Amino acid sequence: NILMPKFSELFGRNQRNEISSIVVVSSTLLSSIYVPAALGIAAISQNIIELLAGSNYSSAAPALSIIMFISAIFISQNILAQAIAAIRKTRIFIYSSVVAFLLNLVLSFILIPIVGIIGAALGFSSVYATTFIVLFAFGKRENIVSFDFIGMAKIWGSSSVMFFAVHAISDFFGGNDLFLPLYVFLGAFIYLLIASLIKLFKNEDKALV
Hints:
Elements: H1 4-12, H2 16-43, H3 45-53, H4 61-73, H5 77-86, H6 91-115, H7 117-141, H8 149-173, H9 180-197, H10 203-208
Helix pairs in contact: 1-2, 1-5, 2-4, 2-5, 2-8, 3-4, 4-7, 5-7, 6-7, 8-9
């Protein structure tokens, strides 16, 4: 809710282009934090599940990875929701919630009997995707939403390299929970190193933030 006052102020001045600019930078900033964190969790999901619930529940690791990946793709919906609420178009939240609920229900009903917990993860994750698509489409119609494809590509590129590196290292060392801090440190180091090399944020974006 940090952005709500600023969005409301800009809407009162009829500066929708400024709202769109802040949405772009804020979405990129949020993604630059959440995406590597989510992919980091996905990379060591087996270790996390076994640490929290025991080895009997290790089969839930792929489901956790799916949820992390899909939530990372659509994390910007949180920014979109604040922008849309600021322009007083909150009725769209009812529509997005209903559509997301129905799709979740249908997918879970179809997929759970076929692929079990993976189907449950896909059904649950469909809520993120549906909500984002509805809010993004509505935001584009209201001219308050834009998207930084280059910035997102950099974030996902850096995070993907980190994911594969950490996943490979965790496979090499096995399921020893003592190595979890090492995985976290290596993941953060790899991501930050790559992000600095490819200059994830432009100077003008830093100023706007």
